[in-house]
Design a protein that fits this description.
Number of strands: 0
Strand content: under 5%
Order of helices and strands: HHHHHHHHHHHHH
Helix content: over 70%
Number of helices: 13
Structural class: mainly alpha
């Protein structure tokens, strides 16, 4: 039984890790070696990595992704924490309907809201700007963060809030000084998942940017082209994929303790 369990774990790890390993191997190959099936290149080269930074503004694309994803997550978490307090701790008419409306926004496919978002971004003069991307990304990320934080906000003990009110604490002090420290693991988990969603977003980034200097990394990789119309630089694409995936891997590894705590937190024990 134990052998079958370890075999299943090995199969799952191989299935999930091998594509990334193969991307690393392919990024170290060049020429006809890209189409070989060697598990490790006979002659490794970093030419593909140099190429993606020298032949196009890939460093600028990475910076755009970092700035846009970080700003999106920061804005969404701030709004979501305050909204979660109102939706999770204060009773008012239409509360359930409002939550359902927030959830319904995330149910629509991006294509369904693309034309409306384009008109909004264009009317605000934010086309081909980072601020325009941040605004459009919040449509995707904000409903998720509000729902998650509202669920955990409801699970916090009422006694803490009642004691703070008796001491004269305002709602802002209750949120920032009492509830926020208790929600730290959940904030880390939600923030990392939201960051990954913003980092990997493609459709809005493709639609709302025009120049190479303003594009994010998913769009930059998708628009990589070779020497001819029918040739794709697979080595460059693999190298770029490795470069943009490593920050996410390192981010998850660095904060895995908080992620596990956030995923397993469901109540606060007194």
């Amino acid at each position: 039984m134990k052998a079958a369990f370890y075999l299943l774990v090995a199969v799952i790890v191989l299935y999930t890790v091998f594509p990334f390993y193969w991307a690393i191997v392919s990024s170290l190959k060049s020429g006809s070696a890209l189409f070989s099936t060697d598990l490790w290149p006979k002659e490794s080269t970093l030419a593909n990595y140099r190429s993606i930074f020298l032949e196009q503004p890939f460093g600028r694309n990475i910076l755009n992704s970092i700035l846009v994803a970080t700003a999106t997550v920061s804005a969404c978490l701030f709004i979501a924490v305050t909204a979660a307090y109102a939706l999770g701790r204060i009773e008012f008419r239409g509360q359930g309907l409002l939550l359902m409306l927030i959830l319904s926004v995330s149910m629509f496919p991006q294509v369904a809201v693309l034309s409306g978002m384009f008109e909004l971004i264009h009317a605000l003069g934010l086309y081909n700007t980072r601020l325009g991307l941040i605004l459009s990304y919040m449509v995707i990320v904000l409903p998720f963060t509000v729902w998650v934080l509202t669920t955990f906000m409801r699970a916090l003990p009422k006694e803490l809030e009642e004691a703070a009110i008796m001491d004269g604490a305002t709602p802002w002090i209750i949120v920032t000084r009492i509830f926020l420290p208790l929600l730290t693991p959940v904030l880390f988990t939600t923030g990392i998942l939201a960051f990954i969603a913003a980092w990997n977003e493609f459709l809005f980034a493709l639609t709302f940017t025009l120049t190479n200097n303003m594009r994010t990394v998913p769009v930059a990789i998708a628009l990589m082209s070779g020497n001819s119309q029918f040739e794709l630089p697979w080595g460059n694409i693999m190298a770029a994929s490795v470069v943009v995936t490593m920050p996410l891997v390192l981010l998850v590894l660095a904060f895995q303790k908080y992620i596990i705590s956030g995923l397993t937190a469901g109540a606060v024990k007194g």
